[in-house]
Amino acid sequence: MLDEEEYAHFYALYTECAAPLGEYLVQHDGHPPDAATLDEMFRPMLDEFERRTGRRDLDPKEIIRHRLADYGPACGNCGLPLRSPRASMCFECGTARVV
Questions:
Q1: Which residue range forms the structural domain that includes residue 16?
Q2: 79 and 38, same structural domain?
């Protein structure tokens, strides 16, 4: 999960890496790039993520979807994060949130 500072950093990298994608789609009649081309486009972001976490096996979109502020606190029963900061119960185990 990314805290706000990490999220801002990776979101900036994501938008920078994704900028050439529009031009690519225009040049290739709307056909999306293959996995190798996408890996090359997002290499700076993936390199930075690997440097910080030791992992490289995530899709760039998945990296920015793991923003800590988008989730609630850990469930008191199973320990998984609640689906939102306002969630009233845990989706995974059904335990009501204790406020």
A1: 4-66
A2: no
